[in-house]
Amino acid sequence: MVDKILAEYGAVVLDRNAKRLVVQVDDKQLRPLAEKLFESGFYYANGVGVDERGLGHDFAMYHVFASEKDKLYLVVKVSTSNLKLPSITPVIPGSNWAEREAMDMLGLEFEGHPEPERLILPDDWPKGVYPLRKEFDYNERPEFVERKPESTPQRTDVVQLPLGPYHPALHEPEYFEIHVDGEVITDAKYRGFHIHRGMEKLAEGRLTLNQVPFLAERICGICGFTHSIAYCQAVADAAGLDWPERAKYIGVILLEIERLHSHLLWVGVVFHLLGFDSGFMHMWRIREKVMDIAEALTGNRKTYGLVLIGGMRRDIDESRKNWVLKTLTELREETERVSKDIFGMKELINRIKGIGVLPKEDARALGVLGPVARASGIDTDVRRDHPYLAYDKLDFKVPVYPEGDVLARLLVRYDEIIESFRLLEQALSEMPQGDVMIEDYTIPSGRVGLGATEAPRGEDVHFVITGVESKVYRWHPRAPTYNNLPSVPIMLRGNNIADAPIIIASIDPCFSCTDHVAIVRKGKVIWKGPLGEGVKQVGR
Amino acid sequence: MTWVALAVNILFVLFYAPLMDGIERQVRARLQCRKGPPITQTWWDILKLLRRPPVAPEKAVRPIFNLAPLVAFAALLTAFILVPTLLPHSITFWGDLILVIYLMNSATLALVFGGFASQNPYAHIGADREVNIFLVEELALAFVIVTLAIVNGSLTIEKLFPVQLKLSVAIALIAFVVLVYIASARIPFDIPEAEPEIVEGALIEYSGSQLAFAKYAIYLKRLLLFSLLLNFVLPRNGVVRPLLFVIALPILSIIYASIEAYCGRYRVTEAIRLLKRISIVTMISWVIAIAGW
Amino acid sequence: MGRFGLIFKSIAKGRVTEKYPFAPIELPEGFRGKPEIDPEKCIGCGACATVCPPSAIQIHVDEEQGYKTIDLFLGRCIFCARCEEVCPAEAIRLTKEFELAAASEEDLHQVVKLKMAKCAGCGRPFDTVRHLQFIAEKLPEEQKPMLALCPDCRAKLASKILTVAARRHR
Ligand code: SF4
Ligand code: SF4
């Protein structure tokens, strides 16, 4: 089916394997092709601008589409010699940020983009300096230009309430401007990327292929391991490497441990936000044991540091297996018991029922991922749709709830916790013997690779172009919150201000992951002034 | 003699109010599988805050903002002259119960005004919520008092306590137990302060000694509510009273704090709906009291 | 059961938080704490510096004094154990220690200073004595003289030998 569509729009196949397909199209055909793909069930997974002059080409934009139905990642490449490309945001809203990112970082122009404004670079970054172009050195510091921070024009008809950049309910800097009428939210805007760390540039400029996994693991403070796996999968994909079976199982085990601790953490935080700190303590008490398992298996609670391009660096000690299995069984029973009690607390459940609803159509258009998508009735899971590591050999269910509210998101994650326990028990007992690492391999240069994993928050997509001298030419990780965040304003609309923190938290946002990619000047005030003005309006 | 006894009472509440918060923190910690801070922690916090200079936001209406915590604190302290606590002594005159309620409310309102004066949007929301809850709460409280007044034929604390037990009084008392919980702004009714939502609400801009007084006032209010409650049941005179009083207070703390540890926060609308129901119950008790039961 | 079940549960569980830092916490075998270089064993090969992802290990060569220093800065270290993995002399090891608070930045540096050998040809210090000894143990006897030369001189010598041999061959 896909081939027919591609042929129709004159796409040239550059590379293909069972899981992904790389094609190039003419820029005139891009928008109609994108529209057609969207109609036939593809969603927008990642968009990467590349300065290909070092490879003897021009600038290019790689749009990555994914389809659960076709079990396929489709990489559509368009080149440009004059920096101009058609925007596909009018037909797929999900590509909005990706195109603006390429605009900021590479200076590409997207014709027909509905809001061609800065997304990542801070307001005082000089115009015409593009950090991801190859001539820009990774440790270069441009002169900042003094510019007044842009603040959205004051509206007099509504009360504007700032939520962030620092707010106790949000554990990372981000900024939501919330318009309220009484206690009801009428509109919300998001401004983020306050903590861009310039990781892509660092990887291209300074690190070697086998050093990047350690950087990738630090994209996220909670679910970092899945990023390092996604990156290594991307390089393995580019070079056609296949890991030993045992390495794949070890990967699954640690990915699921990561999912467990991440979900347990989130459930705890939700209870805390609801004022129910005891629930928080119970969840974190269980989570702590999961962290202990991770520490025993990898040598660290959070940064496992386990994966290289060739596989796993550390084997799982057979003598520890029984202890792990026993602890996991206990933890599962404990989780079930505690959750049953907590779900029996009516006022808690009523508080999150029916709030922050995200309709399925909106979720699809924005390319929302992971538990948020599954709570809005979208049946998607990378582990099942695009199997990686040993997931195709294991049995697990993908929970889907149609309601789309915060409660549904809680239930999806709870079901996933239980599924993770089951997956862990299977993987630990079925794990084959053998090597965990391949030592001899060569990485050809200039190859495109794609790695996708189902992180606790949704699909991670890493895009890699290999370079010479064991370096990456281009690496672009896309964390799930990047796709999920734009849906928050939709969820907030029409809800009570008291529910805003819990709704924002319900996508399990991870801002540092999303922002992985601006150098924000220290002490820069992103937003100032309207605070007082907001007050005047409140006191109207 | 009365003056000495009053001084003892005042010193006792001043000392015990922060300690009571410390006890409740410890109880909650234990129920959350934590070690928790020592029970003197709240005292240390207050002493530390008292040493710090307060900071006010640029746009605040200074006089109101600065005075509010002190007014709240002073109002509550005055209330303790009228309500017998450790010792059964108090200044008494006709309608002193009304004055107690009035003083308690002015403390709450002072903090609300302080919140508005801070010009912070979160403080506004917090103050707004406080007023909303306060109004309904007031209604229920009024019915409770009227019921008591009808049954005992008096509004003087001295004559009121201990109350005659009648059906109407029993209902009113039960409602009062719940009202005490709500009025002391515990979860699920800590909506005006709701840390994760609106960041301590009306208190958000307070710091240093002003914050210390605001917090102290809140602790005093809790103790005042407990004292009122205990006056209903404890014997009026005799040596056992102080003894029973100091035993009963931590017990109340444990009960209230345990409930608090295992509840989630309400939305304002939910809280108000519940309060309205309580008002109806108190109204019924009033009707029953008129009927003479 | 609802909340009452939970209340009983937490009373039964008791305290779950740790006494740390007032009591030490248990660490499993294989815990990755701060790395330590054994200055007696280190041969100054520089393999650790090459693989270290955050460049926590840096090599400085002081040609005038003829010293090579291996400088491990814990402030940058991410405890990945890559250095331990590649070290040929088993000189760098990750310990179980993780408490890194220090009064000054210097306390976070571990510096190993190694004497360098001078090239027999040009006289330039080119490699640490220990590294040369380490290689020498593995080298066949006839190739050992080459070790006295720096890579440049070695290359020159090699090409000379080759050209001579080639000429002879002709
Ligand atoms: S542990 Fe990792 S980061 Fe630390 S010195 Fe060794 S290689 Fe570098
Ligand atoms: S011997 Fe080990 S510690 Fe010393 S420089 Fe080489 S790799 Fe590093």
Descriptive keywords:
heterotrimer, A: about 550 residues, alpha+beta, Beta Polymerase, domain 2, Cytochrome-c3 Hydrogenase, chain B, 2 domains, about 15% strand, globular, B: mainly alpha, binds iron/sulfur cluster
What would your notes on this structure say?
The complex is a heterotrimer of chains A (540), B (293) and C (170). Chain A has helices spanning 2-8, 27-39, 96-106, 199-205, 212-216, 225-239, 245-273, 277-298, 318-343, 346-352, 360-366, 370-375, 382-385, 406-430, 480-484, 488-492, 500-506, 511-514, 530-538; strands at residues 12-16, 20-24, 43-51, 59-67, 72-80, 84-86, 109-111, 159-163, 175-181, 184-191, 307-308, 311-312, 448-455, 458-466, 472-478. Chain A is α+β, with helices and mostly antiparallel strands and 540 residues long. In chain A, helix 7 (245-273) packs antiparallel against helix 14 (406-430), helix 7 (245-273) packs antiparallel against helix 17 and helix 8 packs antiparallel against helix 9. By secondary structure, chain B is mainly α. Chain B has one domain. Helix content of chain B is 73%, strand content 0%. Chain B contains eleven helices and no strands. Chain B is globular. The model of chain B has no long low-confidence stretch (mean pLDDT 80). Chain C has one domain (31-168): 2-Layer Sandwich (Alpha-Beta Plaits). Chain C has helices at 2-13, 47-51, 82-86, 129-138, 151-169, and strands spanning 35-37, 57-62, 67-73, 92-94, 109-118, 125-128. In chain C, a hairpin with a 6-residue loop joins strand 5 and strand 6 (125-128). Chain C starts with a helix and ends with a helix. The mean pLDDT of chain C is 86. Classes of the chains: A alpha+beta (540), B mainly alpha (293), C alpha+beta (170). Chains in contact: A-B, A-C, B-C. The A-B interface holds A 159, 161-162, 167-169, 183, 271-282, 285, 345, 347-348, 350-351, 496-501, 531-532, 534-535, 538-539 and B 28, 31-34, 58-59, 116, 119-121, 124-125, 187-188, 190-191, 194-199, 261-270. The complex binds iron/sulfur cluster (2 copies).
Task: Note the beta-strand portion of chain C.
Answer: 15-25%
Number of domains as seen in the coordinates of chain B: 1
Q: How widely separated are the two ends of chain B?
A: 39 Å
Structural domain tally of chain C? 1
Q: What pair of chains forms the biggest interface?
A: A-B, 37 and 33 residues
Q: Would you identify the regions of chain B where 5 or more consecutive residues have pLDDT less than 50? A: none
Number of helices of chain B: 11
User: Residue-averaged pLDDT of chain B, rounded?
Assistant: 80
Structural class of chain B: mainly alpha
Give the overall silhouette of chain C: elongated
Number of beta strands of chain C: 6
Main-sheet strand order of chain C equals 2-3-5-6
Strand count, sense and closure of the main sheet of chain C? 4 strands, antiparallel
Overall mean pLDDT of chain C: 86
Question: What is the N-to-C order of secondary-structure elements of chain B (H for helix, E for strand)?
Answer: HHHHHHHHHHH
Radius of gyration of chain C: 26 Å
Low-confidence region ranges of chain C? none
The assembly state of the depicted protein chains is heterotrimer
Helix and strand element order of chain C:
HEHEEHEEEHH
